[in-house]
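Hey, can you fold this one?
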Amino acid sequence: MNAASFSRRRFLERTACGFGALAFSALASGRAAGAASAAASSIGMQHAPRAKRVIFLFMQGGVSQVDSFDHKPRLATDDGKKMPFDDARLRANTGSGESAHRVMKSPWQFAQHGACGRWVSELFPETARHVDDLCVLHGLHTEGVAHGPATLFLHCGATSFVRPSMGSWVLYGLGTENDNLPGFVTISPSSGNGGARNYGTAFLPAQFQGTALGRAGMPAAEARLRNLAPADDSSPLARGQLDRLQALNQAQLQRNPGDDELEAAMRSYELAWRMQAHAPEVLDLSGESAATFAQYGIGQPATDNFGRQCLLARRLCEAGVRYVQVTYGDNTANPAWDQHSNLPKHAEHARAVDLPIAGLLADLKQHALLEDTIVWWGGEFGRTPYAQNNGTGRDHNPEGFTVWLAGGGFQPGIAYGATDEFGHRAIAGKMHMHDLHATILHQLGLDHERLTYRYAGRDFRLTDVFGHVVHEVLET
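Sure. Predicted structure:
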């Protein structure tokens, strides 16, 4: 159902490349991102949405579920024993995965929290205060044993093929809420494990590309939109320069009417022009109160960086950005939570994100945003309940892990699904990553089976030919 630009393109083709066409482009370009998506959503939306936007808190590298939100007393009982496990990495390499490994208990204590009595590790004491708002999913499983394939699958629904990212699908399906800001922003993305493909459009029209704000490894305080000129550059002279540039681009587009990238670039120039007047205010945290800074841990060495990222996410959502991804990670070979030989380092990462996450949840509530915002927390996979190579860390585990969701019509205070008694494999309430994608799209009012784009002779979708909506985790 590619209705990306037929009428608009024909209009531009048949109009002289003067200021009339440019005026149309200036007025329509911000809404053009929604023009194609309106055609998509008119087919794909089969019900009223419960949510308008998504904040995805991406814990790059794979948080250990048995050390965070999936309490398994059996690990303490059998700590140190050699027992047989089906090793996903070994199976991927040899075809046969069963081998003996040393069971390793969690170094951290668990306790029950909230009216729901949810078990949470001492790694996340601040998040634990909000468990009555969380919909905890214990039965996740996914594709890909290594970070690269699993990260691509998390974001794009495919382990290796170039596919549009989830944020691009959402923007394609729903359009933007604010013509003066990008509809899809990724804060501090990593250049590894798929890099820009994790927020790219692949074969979707280029206008649905995610906009990167900073990069992993860069202090969030320095994260800027590149080349964003001060507001006082919005002079008639500067506007005239843009008009002349757009006239040249329009002439080129008339010679090459199928050039999607050029048309997207023209729209991006108009959006960039409008952003000069609107984006600096949204990205400027200086007007926030001292109490808000403290709520996010801004100003504290351990939490300042991720706190700034989370506060930016709230401000972007409040301003109408449809999909915001916040990455806790880096650009090293072993990303963030990837503790193969030093599991205690999980504590350092948890200290960095716990208070900011709790602050975000509280702040969204205070701004009456949580009800129609989906907050999604999780990584590309989990970790094994046994020690890797008889050492002090845990290996990758795509067979069973935990993510949680808050807001957006997900049932608060519940746990859905379960892993086995060791926390190794999902055995009940199993949710494949395709199911999670389908369920989030459903809450946004999108039918994952009908949100499609025709390319190379077939209709593609985020969930490929799989996935189903898990209604058990949704509010009625």
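Residues 182 and 321 are 7 Å apart (CA to CA). Let me know if you want another pass with a different chain boundary.
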